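Reopening: Putative methyltransferase still failing for me.
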Amino acid sequence: MKTLSSSSFSSCLLSLSILLTLPVSAFDSDRIITSVQSPDRLEKDLERDINRKPEQVLNFFDIRPGMTVLDIFSGGGYYTELLSYAVGSEGKVISHNNKAYIKYVAETLEKRYYNNRLPNVKRIEAEANDLSLPANSVDVAFLILAYHDIYYSPKKGSWPKIDRKVFLNNIYQSLKPGGILAIIDHHAEPDSPTTTGHDLHRISVNTVITQVKEAGFKLHERAYFLENDEDILTKHMYAPKLRGKTSRFVLKFLKPLDVVKQLVDERNIP
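Support: Ran it again with your exact input. Result attached.
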């Protein structure tokens, strides 16, 4: 049986990884427009589009048909549904929630998945520290408006304490070489402490960048289309007149391509 040499195997993986990071416009930008304009979307989701700008989000994070996308802390599934349409029947969306989130959005989830509306979505329930998927199996991981929840700690204990390093490492391991970690969250003041994650449901973009880079990711690109100069960064994101209108940072991180060499070494390919 013919086998690939180390250099050939490495080249194949590198080519695939580079392909996955090419701009979505080179492939199927129209698919994203069609996804956002789908007549099957829930009315409540459509109302959120004006502030969430989903078409720009999906384009920025290079979502396209055939991908496997992990939607972490997906909540009621706003992005899960959009991703489901965008990756198509040849792709897959893994929609994650923990126990607390599922309880909080139970009614929305019932409507979201009624009568198998989204057949290419696999739902999983796991606490953040236990989120484990096969290594190198995911093209894009979405972490939208949820990074700050790493620091959420209600007194009643309904939200188990998250080990940030374990959580980010689990995401890192699940992504393919060159895979994307997509993060959007509510701005806190630049030098604010991580306690704002609990107190205001906000987080400093500087904190996020530093921590995610420490986890092995590379910051590839930042976008500013969800910024809002009228936001008050010291107020709770649920404050009257602010909910749904906060200023948000948009970050695209990559799992480095040099992990290709590691994959080759693990297989002991001559």
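The chain is about 35% helix and 20% strand. If you still see a failure, please send the error message rather than a screenshot.
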